[in-house]
Amino acid sequence: xxxxxxxxxxxxxxxxxxxxxxxxxxxxxxxxxxxxxxxxxxxxxxxxxxxxxxxxxxxxxxxxxxxxxxxxxxxxxxxxxxxxxxxxxxxxxxxxxxxxxxxxxxxxxxxxxxxxxxxxxxxxxxxxxxxxxxxxxxxxxxxxxxxxxxxxxxxxxxxxxxxxxxxxxxxxxxxxxxxxxxxxxxxxxxxxxxxxxxxxxxxxxxxxxxxxxxxxxxxxxxxxxxxxxxxxxxxxxxxxxxxxxxxxxxxxxxxxxxxxxxxxxxxxxxxxxxxxxxxxxxxxxxxxxxxxxxxxxxx
Length: 299
What we know:
Blueprint lengths: L1 H7 L1 H11 L28 H6 L3 E5 L6 H12 L3 E3 H10 L5 H9 L6 H17 L5 E4 L5 H10 L4 E6 L2 H9 L1 E4 L5 E3 L3 E3 L8 E3 L6 H4 L2 E2 L6 H20 L6 H8 L3 E5 L4 H11 L14
Parallel strand pairs: 1-3, 1-4, 2-3, 4-10
Antiparallel strand pairs: 5-6, 5-9, 7-8
Helix pairs in contact: 1-7, 2-7, 5-6, 5-7
C-alpha cells in the first residue's frame, strides 16, 4: 500500500509533524482531564486576536455519517482560525476531478461503502502538502480517524488536544440526510427537511427547522449522489456493522471513541436540535460561549 509506505517514510513523518503539530495549549471542557498537566482554573484561554492567529488547536470531530461533523467543524474553523480538513470533502474533490482515483471512488461512494485506508492516506497527504505550502498550522479534522488503525497512526504523528463525538438519534439523522441540498453554483449547503421527532424510547423530542436557500440558489439545488435513502441507510448499516464487529471480538463497541476516552480527550455531545439550538450549546460545552462578537462571524 503505497500511501501507507509513504506515511512511514522519514520525510513524510516530518511533513506530517510540521503540518499538524504546533506548540499547543490543551483546549477541553471541564469534564475532560487530559494527561498533560493544566490549570483547573482555565479550561480554554481567552480567544484574543493573538491566540486566534497562533492557531494552537488540534481537534478531531467524530460521529456517524451525516450527523453534522462538517457543519460544526467548519464553524469552529472560522472561529479559531485553523483549517478544517474533511476527508469527505477531499473524496468529493477527487471525484469531481479527472484524477486517477476518481473512477474508483465513484463506485465506492455511490454504493455507500467505506473508502480504504490507502486512499484516505493518499488524499490526506496531498492536502497536508498543500497546507504546508500555504503556511498552515493547527487543524480541525473531520472524518479522520475512523478506525483504530488510523487513530494509532495519527497519534504517532502528532498529539490531539480534543475529540468531539457528535450524536443524533437515527430516525432524525436519516431525515436530515435526505433533506440535504447543495447549490450547484455557489457550493453552499442547505437542508429542506422540517423535522419534528417526538420523544420516544428514551430519546428527547427534537425539532429542526429547514435551512432554506436564498432566492438566487433555489433553482440551482442538487442532491449529493450519496444522499439517497438507499445509500444513507447502507452507510449507517456499515457503520453499525463495524461497531458490532469490535463488540463480537471482545473489544469496545466504539474503538476510536474509547481510545480517546482513555486518554481523557473525548467529549460526547448529543445534538439537541438544529443549528440554532446546537451551535450555542456546543460553544458552551467548549467554554467559548462568552466571546460574543468574536464568534458571530461563524454563527
